[in-house]
Recover the amino acids of this structure.
């Protein structure tokens, strides 16, 4: 993918990675995110199936000589990974973000879709601190995609004898929460009421990260309700 490259009626205006970037519709002047995937994958099917304001919407699919491109909503913001690196997350912001993430997962899981790769880099914050979940390349419905980030994968997905489900996403959310909590521990988090909430959050993370899925939160709804109690 190169700047000024023409893809159908679109022109690449910025390259993010080798296979992703931003493009401009030469007919209407609107700007979008574009991803090159070469051959058709299940990711496209899942994105078409899902309908949530916090999940990128497919607006066009282009079959070019070198493979398949799809054009989708442009999300302006930074990844949660970038936000964590700057230690700019308050306790209340953390809880609010995770509640919104759970709401997104409720929609996915209601459609029997498991994201399969929830991590800091796949969560984008817009200018209003709204959460957006991206990159559905590892998603699956019944049969595990066997595509994941090792540092965020639920242990059962590494076993041939277990069928992964929505609780595998819950485990990954627990790891995201754990990473975010490290930024809180670096702050002057001293007030008694905040300490109590911090330890309650620690217990929530511990439950998300139980090795056996039956001991975790059984749904994103259960986890969201627990977070809302904070």
């Amino acid at each position: 993918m190169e700047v000024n490259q023409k893809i159908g009626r679109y022109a690449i205006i910025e390259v993010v990675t080798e296979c992703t970037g931003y493009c401009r519709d030469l007919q209407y002047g609107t700007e979008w995110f574009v991803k090159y995937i070469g051959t058709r994958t299940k990711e496209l099917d899942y994105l078409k199936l899902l309908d949530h304001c916090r999940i990128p919407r497919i607006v066009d699919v282009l079959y070019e000589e070198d493979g398949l491109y799809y054009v989708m909503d442009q999300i302006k913001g930074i990844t949660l990974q970038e936000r964590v690196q700057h230690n700019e997350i308050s306790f209340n912001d953390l809880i609010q973000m995770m509640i919104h993430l759970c709401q997104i997962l409720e929609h996915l899981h209601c459609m029997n879709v498991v994201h399969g790769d929830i991590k800091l880099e796949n969560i984008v914050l817009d200018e209003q601190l709204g959460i957006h979940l991206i990159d559905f390349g590892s998603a699956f419905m019944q049969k595990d995609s066997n595509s994941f980030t090792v540092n965020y994968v639920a242990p059962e997905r590494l076993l041939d004898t277990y069928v992964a489900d929505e609780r595998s996403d819950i485990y990954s959310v627990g790891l995201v929460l754990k990473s975010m909590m490290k930024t809180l521990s670096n702050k002057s988090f001293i007030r008694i009421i905040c300490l109590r909430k911090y330890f309650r959050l620690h217990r929530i993370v511990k439950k998300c990260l139980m090795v056996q899925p039956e001991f975790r939160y059984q749904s994103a709804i259960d986890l969201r309700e627990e977070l809302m109690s904070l």
User: Anything to note?
Assistant: The longest strand covers residues 10-17. Helices lie at 42-49, 80-85, 91-110, 166-185, 192-208, 220-228.
